[in-house]
Design goal:
With about 50 residues, the protein is mostly beta strands. It contains one helix and three strands. It has one helix at about 20, and strands at about 5-15, 25-35, 40-50. It has a three-stranded antiparallel beta sheet with strand order 1-2-3, with no helix packed on it. The model has no long low-confidence stretch (mean pLDDT about 85).
Length: about 50
């Protein structure tokens, strides 16, 4: 399998929640990823945290 090398960066930021969710211990985060080098790409993810 071919391999590539390079760097990546990840930006993590909180996302706003509804008033009902704000009263609980749940939070939501967004992750935006950038890949540079031999591979140039981006990615995004959302996660819940209890």
């Amino acid at each position: 399998m071919p391999k590539v090398s390079g760097e990546f960066s990840v930006r993590i930021a909180p996302e706003s929640m509804s008033s009902v969710a704000n009263e609980s211990s749940i939070s939501r985060m967004s992750l935006d990823k950038q890949y540079t080098g031999a591979l140039s790409a981006s990615g995004a993810a959302r996660c819940w945290h209890l």
